[in-house]
Amino acid sequence: MIAFVNGTVASVGLASVVLEVGGVGLELQCAPNTLATLRIGHRAQLPTSMVVREESLTLFGFLDDDEKSVFELLQTASGVGPKLAQAMLAVHSPDQLRRAVTTEDVKTLTTVPGIGQKGAQRIILELKDRIGPPTGSTGAAAPAHARDAAWREQVHGGLVGLGWSTREADKAVEAVAPEAQAARDGGAEPDVAALLRAALRTLSRA
Hints:
By secondary structure, this protein is an alpha+beta fold. It has helices at residues 32-35, 65-74, 82-91, 94-102, 106-109, 117-127, 151-161, 166-185, 192-205, and strands at residues 4-12, 16-21, 24-29, 43-53, 56-61. It has nine helices and five strands.
């Protein structure tokens, strides 16, 4: 088991990052909100979870240990694999998922692409007594360099990486543009992770 990876960011793609560790490039599958915090040439330490299949070994990377633990717990529910668990954490923070499950909020869970009403009900039934209450953690904040003028490209790339079409991603980016402008008007840089989640909710309502 590889608990975490600490290295220099060699490249950042739509769905993964390559960290150079001791001259070896390790590819980690990450949600867009995690990728938005990474910068090429800078060091990063990401908690990881290894998913073993007959044909592959895949490392998933996370913002923090809380995301990692929720990712692993989600997969214990019937029908939830690593990709769907990652998508759930792309749309909702760990505490939002805890709250949705413990309060039986089917509507919130179905905003995740790939989860219908029956799937949401099954997740609630199987995890309600195990996921625990919200911890009050807000998660790791994206650094200022990740919340710059490139937020449109990052959000768009994240949506495409999750399976949405280019046209759908374009519309979702435009839909959340007022939120980004409101942040700038208030003296803050747009939060890419928050904008991505808002864009995913917009697409799920469409």
